[in-house]
Write a structure and sequence with these properties.
With 420 residues, the protein is mostly helical. The protein contains 16 helices and no strands.
Amino acid sequence: MSTLRLAAGQTFRSLRIRNYRLYFVGMLISTCGTWMQSVAQSWLVLKISGSSAAVGLTVALQFLPVLLGGAWSGVLADRVDKRRLLIGTQTAAGVLATVLGFIVLFHAVQLWHIFLLALALGVVTALDNPARRALSVEMVGKEHVANAVSLSSAMFTGARVIGPAIAGILIAGVGIAWCFFANGISYIAAIVAFVMMRSDEFHAGERIPRKKGQLREGLVYVWRTPELRIPLLMVAVIGTLSYNFQVVLPSLAKFTFGGDASTFGLMYSLMSIGSVAGALFVAHRTYATQRLLTLAAAAFGALLLVAAVVPSLAIEYFVLMLVGATSVMFVSSANGLLQQRADPQMQGRVMALYSVAFLGSTPIGGPIVGWVDDVLDPRAGLALGGIAALVTALVVIAGFRARSRDAQERERPGVPVAAA
């Protein structure tokens, strides 16, 4: 029993910190609403258009501002009070969700409405994401940041279990509009949490003064630091082609397995159960490592390929749980590595580049995967993501082995130092 208590204490240690505890609870409620909207929006677009490409375009528009302006948002996050910025972004996102809810409720919704509101939400996300990710280290300090990031991933994916399940029930019972209303209300919990935090308990570094060249400075810093450059490049490639579940799963549920909104919601929920397990596994570890990041990427890619060929819905559900576990192990490890290694005054810019690599790649990958789904089938979309993740992991492993061999060659007796 004492061993279990020690393990639990190690895994959930960041929750002892009051500010992070408030953040965790507030964001759990808010993120449940976000996933409800995500499922409802994808299903609504598919219902109106009958096209996976339209779903991909909606997702692309939602993350296009992250691609175009996410890096600049990191500079802003390093300059301003992150908590105040997040109160503003959460408020704006709640208003947009409520507006969409009313449009759907009064049967006035058209595709261009959804596209426009998705783009507006993307602007909010571009401002929100770097500040929210960089706030983790300010709430808990460098010592616990890998744990806090993993617990946040567990919270995020736990919400992905609850949100889609509730969305499926609401869509079937009272209509899609109420998913958007529920999301709008859920942002209140996050706003209250940010307001209740104690400023004197933050581990905040000095804000950087406004000057020219700060974005370029961040880009050069990341490129010259292999511990940051390699995870970011992996996230960029895998994020572009492998994390398009909002595009693939609706089509997989409807066209491949002949299901409905509840089938789609259950796919998301079961995948998220696996994601929680993967996040808690990473949270139990003291630090994120490059080795875990690479192995998680390889396993994620292999399991996506398996998901692309399984013959029955029951087996697909099981494989998606494993996909969820490895997918969150990859992103949690990448996020933790970046926050562990980044200089405090570069934190916002480094996490902005992470957001650009992971979320900003969606405007590129979403339409590509949607097109593959339409031209071939949803299984091909899954296979494309699996190949991308597996090949990326293998390339990184080969690179590390090559550098290791070079290092061993330099250390051989008789090799002059100057020649090495």
